[in-house]
Every structure is written in structure tokens, then in C-alpha cells.
Hints:
The complex is a heterodimer.
Chain A: E1 5-7, E2 10-13, E3 19-24, E4 31-37, E5 44-50, E6 53-57, E7 64-68, E8 73-78, E9 87-94, E10 104-105, E11 109-113
Parallel strand pairs in A: 2-11
Antiparallel strand pairs in A: 1-3, 3-8, 4-5, 4-9, 5-6, 7-8, 9-10, 9-11
Chain B: E1 9-13, E2 18-23, E3 33-38, E4 45-50, E5 55-56, E6 61-64, E7 70-75, E8 84-89, E9 103-108
Parallel strand pairs in B: 1-9
Antiparallel strand pairs in B: 2-7, 3-4, 3-8, 5-6, 6-7, 8-9
Amino acid sequence: ETGxxxxxxxLIKTRGQQVTLRCSSQSGHNTVSWYxxxxxxxxxxxxxxxxxxxxxxxxxxxxxxxLQFPNYSSELNVNALELDDSALYxxxxxxxxxxxxxxxxxxxxxxxxx
Amino acid sequence: xxxxxxxxxMESNEEEPVHLxxxxxxxxGTDYIHWYRQLPSQGPEYVIHGLTSNVNNRMASLAIxxxxxxxxxxxxxxxxxxxxxxxxxxxxxxxxxxxxxxxSLTVIP
Lengths: 114, 109
């Protein structure tokens, strides 16, 4: 069983640019969740995808969007980058939506916006 | 928003037990409590979860209060590798996690 992987590891962008972050879930996992973690804070829930449909969103604006693909990969897209978007972005995959389903986190992508 | 509250930090001596508390006063009958930990420079990792009764696994034990409004994660013998931020989570519908700030555990050699 392979783990959850994310790419790239680090990324530097400037304000106003757009960025795409990628995540590869564990095979067979139908759910992927994305989180933003600022320095010294806990991860903040951005949104969740279940079988390629958005299934819930946290308090993030529409310029944060995502896609989930049938091959267990997913993307987080952020448009019109702002300085406050600088953070560690984590994805987590799980089997489904049950309260007993463990979320398996990737190592994250560190995004710096200048 | 997170539905749980935890102390910001705790310290433990190496090889001694550690009890990490969590309050979840709004919990309902079907809500699980999950514990994850995040080691430095890593993504969070699963520790344990439970519903009503106490739970044990190879990493830790979870003691849930009878009224379910609080729980305690127990590390039986803290090691230096257990130094991490520990998060207690009461998931939303769809198993969506809203993290708090967690408890930063320092293990003293």
C-alpha cells in the first residue's frame, strides 16, 4: 500500500499568480480532503471531494478550487494569490465518508507568496 | 470551527506516562473522537479514535468520559519520538476535520 504523495514539495509564487498543487491518494480511497496550515496553527479545512464531486467546503473563497480524478489523483488550484496564502497545503485521503475512516495525510506542499 | 478544546502545551519526562486531555462538550451520540499527531515537518498521522468505550492500540489508549464530553489520550511511556502536536478532533458530517491548535507535547530526556 503506497502512501499519499504531494507535489511539488516547495513552491514560490508572486501575488496575483495562479498555482496548482497535486496530490496522489492511496489506491481505493474515494475521498480526498485539502487543508491549509499557516505557521504555528492547526490545519484548516479547505474542501473535500468524494468520488469526483465536491462534498463540503470550509471558510475559503471561491478562488480556491479543486478537482478529483478517477485515477486517485487530485488538484488544488488557487487563483489571484495573496500574501496570506503562504502556508503548508496538505491533502488527506480516506476510504469514504464514515466517521471511522482514517485520513492519511501527505507530507504537504510549502507555498510561499511574495 | 473546531468543536474541541485542548491545552496549548504539555511536558513529560521520557519513559513516563502522558495524559493529554480534550474537551468536546457539544458531542452527540454518533460523534466519534479522533486523535492525530503531527511531528515536525510532517503531515498529521492517525493515532486512535473511539465512540463510547475506552480504546487501545499499539500507539496509545483513549479514555472517554462516561458523559462523552471529554476524553484523554494516554501515551503509556513517552519517548523523544512522541514529541509532536496532538490534535483531538470531532469530525463534521462527511468525516470532515476541523482542527484546533492542538497540544504541543515536549518530552524531556
